[in-house]
Amino acid sequence: MSLTNVFPKGCLTFTLIALSIILYLGQVQGDGTAEKCDLHFAEIDPGNEFECDSSTTGNHACRYTSCYLPDGKTSWALLKFDRCHGPRQPGSLTLEAQSYTRMDDGIHMAESVTGTVYICPNDGANKDQMIGCTDCRKN
């Protein structure tokens, strides 16, 4: 007796499609932990997941739609660092960040338009600039 004889015609196809969707959605779901990305934040799967590194809990993958700025705004264009210096820029700039990593010599951030890496001081308003996410799973 084959599996196709157990289900009415058409039902098996519908069941397999529904199962595929459920399994796919489960791949990008986190375990619901909230994290502050105080050390590192970068996109790892465009439109689905970000990498979030916390000084207290380590490295996590976080669902794209669960990430926010400290003031509750979700526009990444609002994540800005000031007094930044880059390879072709001797002066100080305020830049929109695509990703960032905090290191001993400052915040290394990739600028959102060109991806050029700049170094910004990790003090003042820059110290408070970080992403938080509410739906993360441990890497």
TrEMBL record:
Q: Does the keyword Signal apply?
A: yes
- According to the record, the signal peptide region is 1-30
Alphabetically list the UniProt keywords: Signal
Q: Which domain of life is it from?
A: Eukaryota
Q: What name does this protein carry?
A: Secreted protein
Q: Which organism is it from?
A: Puccinia striiformis f. sp. tritici PST-78
